[in-house]
Amino acid sequence: MTVDVLHSVSEIPADAWDAMAQELDIDADRGYLRFREYLESGQSVMVTARESGTLRGALHGALTTPRTGLASHPWKFIGSEAVLRLAEDDPDAEQARRTQRDLAGAQQPASATDAEPLWQILDRRFGSCYVIRGFDNSQVILEPGLDAVTAERVTGRLIQEAQSAALDHGAGAVVFPFVRPGDRMLRGVLAEQGFHGGVTTAASAFRLDGCSTYDQYLEALPSRRRRRYRQEERQLLASGLSTGEIDLVPNAGRIAELEAQTLARHGGRPDPEAIRRARTVLAEALPAAVRVPAVHRDDLLIACALHLLGRRSSLFMAYGCDYDVADRGPSYPWACFYHPIRMAVEHGAGTVRLGLEGFEAKTQRGAVVEAREMWIWVPDSGTGKQPGTLLDFLDARNTAYLRRYTG
Fold this sequence. Notes:
By secondary structure, the protein is of the alpha+beta class. It has helices spanning 14-21, 30-39, 74-78, 93-104, 118-126, 148-168, 184-192, 214-219, 223-238, 252-265, 272-285, 331-346, 359-364, 381-406, and strands at 2-6, 44-51, 54-63, 129-132, 141-142, 173-179, 196-207, 242-245, 290-291, 293-297, 300-309, 313-321, 351-356, 368-377. Strands 1, 2, 3, 4, 5, 6, 7, 8, 9, 10, 11, 12, 13 and 14 form a 14-stranded mixed sheet that branches.
Protein backbone atom coordinates (compact mmCIF):
# COMPACT_ATOMS: atom_id res chain seq x y z
CA MET A 1 0.00 0.00 0.00
CA THR A 2 1.33 3.44 -0.95
CA VAL A 3 0.39 6.29 1.35
CA ASP A 4 0.91 9.94 0.38
CA VAL A 5 0.46 13.28 2.11
CA LEU A 6 -0.91 16.04 -0.14
CA HIS A 7 -2.11 19.60 0.40
CA SER A 8 -5.17 19.71 -1.84
CA VAL A 9 -7.61 17.36 -3.48
CA SER A 10 -6.65 19.20 -6.67
CA GLU A 11 -3.35 17.29 -6.62
CA ILE A 12 -5.31 14.13 -7.43
CA PRO A 13 -6.44 13.81 -11.07
CA ALA A 14 -10.18 14.29 -11.37
CA ASP A 15 -10.73 10.93 -13.05
CA ALA A 16 -8.83 9.09 -10.29
CA TRP A 17 -10.84 10.82 -7.55
CA ASP A 18 -14.16 10.33 -9.31
CA ALA A 19 -13.45 6.64 -9.86
CA MET A 20 -13.33 6.27 -6.06
CA ALA A 21 -15.87 8.85 -4.90
CA GLN A 22 -18.49 9.33 -7.59
CA GLU A 23 -20.95 6.95 -5.93
CA LEU A 24 -20.47 8.56 -2.50
CA ASP A 25 -22.41 11.48 -1.05
CA ILE A 26 -21.91 15.07 -2.15
CA ASP A 27 -19.56 15.97 0.70
CA ALA A 28 -17.03 13.54 -0.81
CA ASP A 29 -17.26 15.37 -4.15
CA ARG A 30 -14.02 16.92 -5.37
CA GLY A 31 -15.70 20.31 -5.75
CA TYR A 32 -17.04 20.24 -2.19
CA LEU A 33 -13.59 19.39 -0.79
CA ARG A 34 -12.04 22.24 -2.77
CA PHE A 35 -14.63 24.55 -1.22
CA ARG A 36 -13.75 23.34 2.27
CA GLU A 37 -10.09 24.03 1.52
CA TYR A 38 -11.06 27.59 0.61
CA LEU A 39 -12.99 28.07 3.85
CA GLU A 40 -10.31 26.88 6.25
CA SER A 41 -7.67 29.40 7.33
CA GLY A 42 -5.03 26.73 7.98
CA GLN A 43 -3.04 24.50 5.65
CA SER A 44 -5.07 21.72 4.02
CA VAL A 45 -3.64 18.25 4.62
CA MET A 46 -4.83 15.18 2.74
CA VAL A 47 -3.69 11.59 3.23
CA THR A 48 -4.33 9.06 0.45
CA ALA A 49 -3.84 5.30 0.13
CA ARG A 50 -3.31 3.45 -3.15
CA GLU A 51 -2.94 -0.21 -4.03
CA SER A 52 -1.75 -1.30 -7.47
CA GLY A 53 -2.12 2.31 -8.59
CA THR A 54 -5.81 2.49 -7.58
CA LEU A 55 -7.00 5.02 -5.03
CA ARG A 56 -8.51 3.09 -2.10
CA GLY A 57 -9.11 5.76 0.52
CA ALA A 58 -8.40 9.25 1.78
CA LEU A 59 -8.57 11.56 4.77
CA HIS A 60 -9.26 15.24 4.13
CA GLY A 61 -8.72 17.98 6.68
CA ALA A 62 -6.86 21.09 7.69
CA LEU A 63 -4.61 22.50 10.41
CA THR A 64 -6.12 24.93 12.87
CA THR A 65 -5.03 28.54 13.31
CA PRO A 66 -6.28 31.27 15.66
CA ARG A 67 -8.67 32.33 12.85
CA THR A 68 -10.25 28.88 12.42
CA GLY A 69 -13.99 28.91 13.07
CA LEU A 70 -15.63 27.29 16.08
CA ALA A 71 -16.94 24.17 14.31
CA SER A 72 -13.51 23.41 12.78
CA HIS A 73 -11.42 24.22 15.87
CA PRO A 74 -11.70 21.49 18.53
CA TRP A 75 -10.17 23.60 21.30
CA LYS A 76 -12.64 26.42 20.64
CA PHE A 77 -15.49 23.93 20.56
CA ILE A 78 -14.75 22.02 23.76
CA GLY A 79 -13.57 25.20 25.46
CA SER A 80 -16.85 27.02 24.84
CA GLU A 81 -19.57 27.43 27.43
CA ALA A 82 -22.18 26.28 24.90
CA VAL A 83 -20.85 22.72 24.99
CA LEU A 84 -21.70 22.54 28.72
CA ARG A 85 -25.41 22.59 27.79
CA LEU A 86 -26.35 24.73 30.76
CA ALA A 87 -30.04 25.18 31.47
CA GLU A 88 -31.45 28.60 32.23
CA ASP A 89 -30.90 29.33 35.92
CA ASP A 90 -28.94 26.07 36.19
CA PRO A 91 -27.94 25.65 39.86
CA ASP A 92 -24.85 23.68 38.81
CA ALA A 93 -23.68 26.20 36.22
CA GLU A 94 -20.78 27.62 38.20
CA GLN A 95 -19.54 24.17 39.20
CA ALA A 96 -19.72 23.00 35.57
CA ARG A 97 -17.71 26.02 34.42
CA ARG A 98 -15.14 25.43 37.15
CA THR A 99 -14.80 21.74 36.25
CA GLN A 100 -14.38 22.59 32.58
CA ARG A 101 -11.56 25.02 33.39
CA ASP A 102 -9.90 22.57 35.78
CA LEU A 103 -9.93 19.74 33.24
CA ALA A 104 -8.57 22.08 30.57
CA GLY A 105 -5.64 22.84 32.87
CA ALA A 106 -6.63 26.45 33.49
CA GLN A 107 -6.19 28.46 36.65
CA GLN A 108 -9.41 29.71 38.18
CA PRO A 109 -9.65 33.46 37.43
CA ALA A 110 -10.13 36.10 40.06
CA SER A 111 -13.12 37.37 38.08
CA ALA A 112 -14.93 36.56 34.85
CA THR A 113 -13.19 39.47 33.11
CA ASP A 114 -9.79 37.98 34.00
CA ALA A 115 -10.52 34.59 32.44
CA GLU A 116 -8.29 33.63 29.52
CA PRO A 117 -10.31 31.84 26.84
CA LEU A 118 -10.05 28.11 27.37
CA TRP A 119 -9.23 27.44 23.73
CA GLN A 120 -6.08 29.53 24.04
CA ILE A 121 -5.02 27.53 27.10
CA LEU A 122 -5.67 24.22 25.30
CA ASP A 123 -3.87 25.47 22.20
CA ARG A 124 -0.85 26.46 24.27
CA ARG A 125 -0.80 23.15 26.14
CA PHE A 126 -1.32 20.82 23.20
CA GLY A 127 -0.65 22.84 20.08
CA SER A 128 -2.69 23.23 16.91
CA CYS A 129 -4.84 20.39 15.56
CA TYR A 130 -5.03 18.45 12.33
CA VAL A 131 -8.82 18.24 11.96
CA ILE A 132 -10.54 15.70 9.71
CA ARG A 133 -14.12 16.76 9.06
CA GLY A 134 -16.76 16.98 6.36
CA PHE A 135 -20.15 18.69 6.36
CA ASP A 136 -21.61 17.09 9.49
CA ASN A 137 -19.32 14.12 10.06
CA SER A 138 -15.73 12.94 10.22
CA GLN A 139 -15.24 10.09 7.85
CA VAL A 140 -12.66 8.08 6.02
CA ILE A 141 -13.45 8.38 2.32
CA LEU A 142 -13.20 4.80 1.05
CA GLU A 143 -13.62 3.18 -2.33
CA PRO A 144 -17.10 1.58 -2.38
CA GLY A 145 -17.17 -2.20 -2.33
CA LEU A 146 -14.10 -2.80 -0.17
CA ASP A 147 -14.53 -5.84 2.05
CA ALA A 148 -14.51 -5.23 5.81
CA VAL A 149 -10.96 -6.46 6.34
CA THR A 150 -9.53 -4.29 3.56
CA ALA A 151 -11.55 -1.25 4.65
CA GLU A 152 -10.22 -1.56 8.19
CA ARG A 153 -6.65 -2.05 6.98
CA VAL A 154 -6.81 1.01 4.71
CA THR A 155 -8.40 3.08 7.47
CA GLY A 156 -5.72 2.09 9.97
CA ARG A 157 -2.92 2.96 7.58
CA LEU A 158 -4.46 6.34 6.75
CA ILE A 159 -4.85 7.25 10.42
CA GLN A 160 -1.28 6.23 11.23
CA GLU A 161 -0.04 8.47 8.43
CA ALA A 162 -2.30 11.29 9.63
CA GLN A 163 -0.65 11.11 13.05
CA SER A 164 2.81 11.34 11.49
CA ALA A 165 1.71 14.11 9.12
CA ALA A 166 0.31 16.16 11.99
CA LEU A 167 3.64 16.08 13.82
CA ASP A 168 5.56 16.82 10.61
CA HIS A 169 3.40 19.92 10.13
CA GLY A 170 3.93 21.12 13.69
CA ALA A 171 0.49 20.18 15.03
CA GLY A 172 0.03 18.77 18.51
CA ALA A 173 -3.14 16.74 17.99
CA VAL A 174 -5.19 14.84 15.43
CA VAL A 175 -8.94 15.27 15.82
CA PHE A 176 -11.98 13.62 14.22
CA PRO A 177 -14.62 15.99 15.66
CA PHE A 178 -17.87 14.57 14.25
CA VAL A 179 -17.70 10.77 14.27
CA ARG A 180 -20.99 8.89 13.99
CA PRO A 181 -21.57 6.54 16.95
CA GLY A 182 -22.70 3.92 14.43
CA ASP A 183 -19.37 3.97 12.57
CA ARG A 184 -18.05 1.00 14.54
CA MET A 185 -15.11 0.33 12.26
CA LEU A 186 -13.73 3.87 12.43
CA ARG A 187 -14.31 4.12 16.19
CA GLY A 188 -12.50 0.82 16.71
CA VAL A 189 -9.49 1.87 14.66
CA LEU A 190 -9.32 5.24 16.41
CA ALA A 191 -9.33 3.54 19.81
CA GLU A 192 -6.56 1.17 18.68
CA GLN A 193 -4.47 4.14 17.56
CA GLY A 194 -4.72 5.85 20.95
CA PHE A 195 -7.57 8.31 20.34
CA HIS A 196 -10.04 9.19 23.09
CA GLY A 197 -13.66 9.97 22.19
CA GLY A 198 -16.79 11.52 23.65
CA VAL A 199 -20.11 13.02 22.54
CA THR A 200 -19.93 16.80 22.13
CA THR A 201 -22.66 17.67 19.61
CA ALA A 202 -25.16 16.17 17.17
CA ALA A 203 -26.33 16.45 13.57
CA SER A 204 -29.90 16.38 12.34
CA ALA A 205 -31.61 15.35 9.11
CA PHE A 206 -34.95 14.64 7.52
CA ARG A 207 -35.15 10.98 6.46
CA LEU A 208 -37.37 10.70 3.42
CA ASP A 209 -37.65 6.89 3.64
CA GLY A 210 -38.11 6.24 -0.05
CA CYS A 211 -40.95 8.74 -0.52
CA SER A 212 -41.57 9.45 -4.19
CA THR A 213 -43.69 12.60 -3.68
CA TYR A 214 -43.88 15.42 -1.15
CA ASP A 215 -47.49 14.52 -0.34
CA GLN A 216 -46.41 10.95 0.40
CA TYR A 217 -43.82 12.31 2.82
CA LEU A 218 -46.44 14.48 4.53
CA GLU A 219 -48.86 11.58 4.88
CA ALA A 220 -46.22 9.60 6.77
CA LEU A 221 -45.85 12.36 9.38
CA PRO A 222 -47.73 12.38 12.69
CA SER A 223 -50.96 14.36 12.26
CA ARG A 224 -49.89 17.31 14.43
CA ARG A 225 -46.64 17.74 12.52
CA ARG A 226 -48.41 17.37 9.18
CA ARG A 227 -50.84 20.15 10.15
CA ARG A 228 -47.91 22.39 11.03
CA TYR A 229 -46.30 21.89 7.63
CA ARG A 230 -49.54 22.67 5.81
CA GLN A 231 -50.47 25.59 8.04
CA GLU A 232 -47.10 27.31 7.61
CA GLU A 233 -47.14 26.78 3.85
CA ARG A 234 -50.67 28.23 3.65
CA GLN A 235 -49.55 31.22 5.72
CA LEU A 236 -46.73 31.87 3.29
CA LEU A 237 -49.09 31.72 0.29
CA ALA A 238 -51.51 34.14 2.01
CA SER A 239 -48.80 36.60 3.08
CA GLY A 240 -48.31 38.27 -0.27
CA LEU A 241 -44.73 37.03 -0.43
CA SER A 242 -43.42 35.25 -3.50
CA THR A 243 -41.22 32.17 -3.42
CA GLY A 244 -38.97 30.31 -5.81
CA GLU A 245 -35.35 29.46 -6.54
CA ILE A 246 -32.79 32.06 -7.66
CA ASP A 247 -29.30 31.84 -9.13
CA LEU A 248 -26.49 32.26 -6.64
CA VAL A 249 -23.85 34.24 -8.54
CA PRO A 250 -25.90 37.23 -9.77
CA ASN A 251 -27.53 37.54 -6.34
CA ALA A 252 -24.41 36.81 -4.26
CA GLY A 253 -24.15 40.34 -2.85
CA ARG A 254 -27.68 40.45 -1.46
CA ILE A 255 -27.49 36.83 -0.29
CA ALA A 256 -24.30 37.67 1.62
CA GLU A 257 -25.98 40.69 3.23
CA LEU A 258 -28.84 38.52 4.47
CA GLU A 259 -26.54 35.78 5.77
CA ALA A 260 -24.50 38.44 7.59
CA GLN A 261 -27.65 39.75 9.28
CA THR A 262 -28.50 36.27 10.54
CA LEU A 263 -24.96 35.63 11.80
CA ALA A 264 -24.89 39.00 13.58
CA ARG A 265 -28.27 38.30 15.18
CA HIS A 266 -26.75 35.16 16.72
CA GLY A 267 -23.69 36.90 18.09
CA GLY A 268 -21.29 36.66 15.16
CA ARG A 269 -19.20 39.40 13.58
CA PRO A 270 -19.61 38.59 9.90
CA ASP A 271 -17.86 40.09 6.91
CA PRO A 272 -20.43 40.33 4.08
CA GLU A 273 -17.74 40.65 1.42
CA ALA A 274 -15.98 37.50 2.65
CA ILE A 275 -19.33 35.68 2.56
CA ARG A 276 -19.96 36.91 -1.00
CA ARG A 277 -16.56 35.64 -2.15
CA ALA A 278 -17.15 32.27 -0.49
CA ARG A 279 -20.52 31.91 -2.18
CA THR A 280 -18.96 32.67 -5.55
CA VAL A 281 -16.27 30.03 -4.94
CA LEU A 282 -18.94 27.50 -4.01
CA ALA A 283 -20.92 28.22 -7.19
CA GLU A 284 -17.78 27.68 -9.25
CA ALA A 285 -16.89 24.45 -7.41
CA LEU A 286 -20.35 22.83 -7.55
CA PRO A 287 -22.37 24.68 -10.19
CA ALA A 288 -24.90 21.89 -10.72
CA ALA A 289 -25.51 21.31 -7.01
CA VAL A 290 -26.26 24.81 -5.69
CA ARG A 291 -29.90 25.59 -4.87
CA VAL A 292 -31.14 28.87 -3.35
CA PRO A 293 -34.80 28.87 -2.21
CA ALA A 294 -35.73 32.55 -1.94
CA VAL A 295 -38.55 34.69 -0.55
CA HIS A 296 -39.34 38.12 -2.02
CA ARG A 297 -41.58 40.97 -0.93
CA ASP A 298 -42.34 42.67 -4.20
CA ASP A 299 -38.90 42.87 -5.83
CA LEU A 300 -36.92 42.76 -2.58
CA LEU A 301 -35.17 39.54 -1.55
CA ILE A 302 -35.95 39.25 2.16
CA ALA A 303 -34.93 35.66 3.00
CA CYS A 304 -33.10 32.76 1.42
CA ALA A 305 -31.29 29.54 2.21
CA LEU A 306 -28.37 27.84 0.52
CA HIS A 307 -28.44 24.10 -0.15
CA LEU A 308 -26.31 21.64 -2.07
CA LEU A 309 -28.24 18.89 -3.84
CA GLY A 310 -26.47 15.58 -4.40
CA ARG A 311 -27.53 12.14 -5.54
CA ARG A 312 -27.99 10.81 -2.02
CA SER A 313 -28.76 13.90 0.04
CA SER A 314 -29.00 17.65 0.14
CA LEU A 315 -26.93 19.77 2.52
CA PHE A 316 -28.31 22.85 4.31
CA MET A 317 -25.42 25.31 4.20
CA ALA A 318 -26.76 28.69 5.37
CA TYR A 319 -29.79 30.92 5.95
CA GLY A 320 -30.11 34.67 5.59
CA CYS A 321 -32.90 37.06 6.46
CA ASP A 322 -33.69 40.80 6.39
CA TYR A 323 -34.79 41.43 9.96
CA ASP A 324 -35.88 44.98 9.11
CA VAL A 325 -38.84 43.46 7.25
CA ALA A 326 -41.39 42.88 9.98
CA ASP A 327 -43.80 40.55 8.18
CA ARG A 328 -41.68 37.74 6.80
CA GLY A 329 -44.23 35.02 7.45
CA PRO A 330 -42.86 31.47 7.72
CA SER A 331 -39.97 32.25 5.36
CA TYR A 332 -37.51 30.37 7.55
CA PRO A 333 -39.18 26.93 7.62
CA TRP A 334 -40.08 27.16 3.92
CA ALA A 335 -36.54 28.00 2.74
CA CYS A 336 -34.72 25.75 5.20
CA PHE A 337 -37.04 22.75 5.48
CA TYR A 338 -40.14 22.49 3.30
CA HIS A 339 -38.77 23.46 -0.11
CA PRO A 340 -35.57 21.40 0.36
CA ILE A 341 -37.68 18.34 1.24
CA ARG A 342 -39.70 18.82 -1.97
CA MET A 343 -36.49 19.32 -3.91
CA ALA A 344 -34.84 16.20 -2.47
CA VAL A 345 -37.89 14.02 -3.11
CA GLU A 346 -38.18 15.22 -6.71
CA HIS A 347 -34.53 14.36 -7.38
CA GLY A 348 -34.51 11.01 -5.59
CA ALA A 349 -32.28 12.07 -2.69
CA GLY A 350 -33.08 10.16 0.49
CA THR A 351 -31.97 12.66 3.12
CA VAL A 352 -32.02 16.39 3.82
CA ARG A 353 -28.99 16.96 6.04
CA LEU A 354 -29.38 20.00 8.27
CA GLY A 355 -25.94 20.22 9.86
CA LEU A 356 -24.98 20.56 13.52
CA GLU A 357 -26.77 22.17 16.46
CA GLY A 358 -30.01 24.18 16.26
CA PHE A 359 -32.08 21.18 17.29
CA GLU A 360 -35.30 22.80 18.47
CA ALA A 361 -36.70 24.17 15.20
CA LYS A 362 -35.52 21.13 13.28
CA THR A 363 -36.98 18.47 15.57
CA GLN A 364 -40.29 20.35 15.80
CA ARG A 365 -40.64 19.61 12.10
CA GLY A 366 -39.58 15.98 12.28
CA ALA A 367 -35.80 16.00 11.87
CA VAL A 368 -33.93 13.06 13.38
CA VAL A 369 -31.02 13.94 15.67
CA GLU A 370 -27.90 11.76 15.80
CA ALA A 371 -25.02 12.33 18.23
CA ARG A 372 -21.49 13.12 17.08
CA GLU A 373 -18.37 12.09 18.96
CA MET A 374 -15.11 14.00 19.04
CA TRP A 375 -12.03 11.74 18.97
CA ILE A 376 -8.68 13.30 19.94
CA TRP A 377 -5.12 11.98 19.77
CA VAL A 378 -2.10 13.72 21.26
CA PRO A 379 1.37 12.14 21.11
CA ASP A 380 2.31 12.67 24.76
CA SER A 381 0.36 10.11 26.77
CA GLY A 382 0.83 12.01 30.02
CA THR A 383 -0.43 15.27 28.59
CA GLY A 384 -3.12 13.47 26.62
CA LYS A 385 -5.01 12.57 29.79
CA GLN A 386 -6.21 16.17 30.01
CA PRO A 387 -8.26 16.32 26.81
CA GLY A 388 -9.43 12.76 27.43
CA THR A 389 -10.73 13.60 30.88
CA LEU A 390 -12.34 16.78 29.60
CA LEU A 391 -14.01 14.75 26.83
CA ASP A 392 -15.39 12.31 29.40
CA PHE A 393 -16.91 15.21 31.34
CA LEU A 394 -18.45 16.74 28.21
CA ASP A 395 -19.64 13.34 26.98
CA ALA A 396 -21.73 12.86 30.11
CA ARG A 397 -23.29 16.32 29.87
CA ASN A 398 -23.99 16.16 26.14
CA THR A 399 -25.34 12.61 26.20
CA ALA A 400 -27.83 13.63 28.89
CA TYR A 401 -28.76 16.84 27.03
CA LEU A 402 -29.32 15.13 23.69
CA ARG A 403 -31.76 12.59 25.15
CA ARG A 404 -34.51 15.21 24.89
CA TYR A 405 -34.08 15.11 21.09
CA THR A 406 -32.95 11.56 20.45
CA GLY A 407 -35.32 9.74 22.83
